[in-house]
Specification:
Helices cover 26% and strands 23% of the residues. It contains 7 helices and 12 strands. The strands form 2 sheets. Strands 1-12-2-3-4-5 form a 6-stranded mixed sheet, covered by helices on one side. A 6-stranded mixed sheet has the order 6-7-8-9-11-10. It is globular, with a radius of gyration of 20 Å.
Amino acid sequence: MIAQRVLAGAVALGAGVLAYASLIERNAFGVRHESMDVLEPGARPIRVLHLSDLHLAPWQTRKMDWIRSLVDLRPDLIVATGDMLGHTEAIPALRSALSAFDGIPGVYVNGSNDYFGPTVPNPFSYVWKTSSYREQGEPLDRAELEDLYAAKGWVNLNNASELLTINESRLVFAGTDDAHLGLDRLDVVAGAVESVLESETRTLGTFLGVTHAPYRRVLNFLTTLGVDAIFAGHTHGGQVCIPGIGALTTNSDLPVSLARGLSVWNHHARSAFLNVSAGVGTSIYAPVRFACPPEAVLVTLRPRDFGYS
């Protein structure tokens, strides 16, 4: 009798946790606020809205409404770090969700789910190993996605570099295509950055890296390149975490302690801020979050202090 009660209690607890993770926390959208002192001394602050891993599906109207409401944060720049699509018919929904940001400059890179639709995951193998390209679903219309971004004037940073002027500050960007699919071409990125810098004779300004999946090779490369900060997504913050312990996986080789949040990445005596977003969505086939609520991140870039010798 006692064993039956214990079993019944465990089943009830598990059902309650699943209901909370799938119905409540998955939709508990919030904004994390961070700041980085990376601008030139005396510069005006820049409010960067970091959006990642929307995994948007056509019926997710609550998520779309919330994304549109983020315009109230008055961002000066949008940084989108991929996996915006979560369904083969999601582009009209994404266009609607991003409509509030018309006229606001942006940059973007793609994630694996901007190339392929979702598949049914194995929740057990996900904890122990990263997924692979062999597990990807139906190819998506990437050209239509890029047309959407182009219509907004957002800059494609997939294995590319660009210079933007925001609030009178010069920002040089270096971005990679999705490292999770092995599409990152670090040699191409280095050449693109060199071309941007060769065409400029004035002060460099602030140097920012943008990538979807924060694999160590990418973070090491960008840090060695000299970026001041890196924006990344992909990890979902672990998605299902253990309270007091944290994430069990990052679906990459990034340490689990860095699965979400702002930290400093160090490599070969260089360092860069690293902001990893836990993302807004989940796969439609794994619609749960536990101890890891969805987020957008508002990062305020602030001026560095004047140095004195």
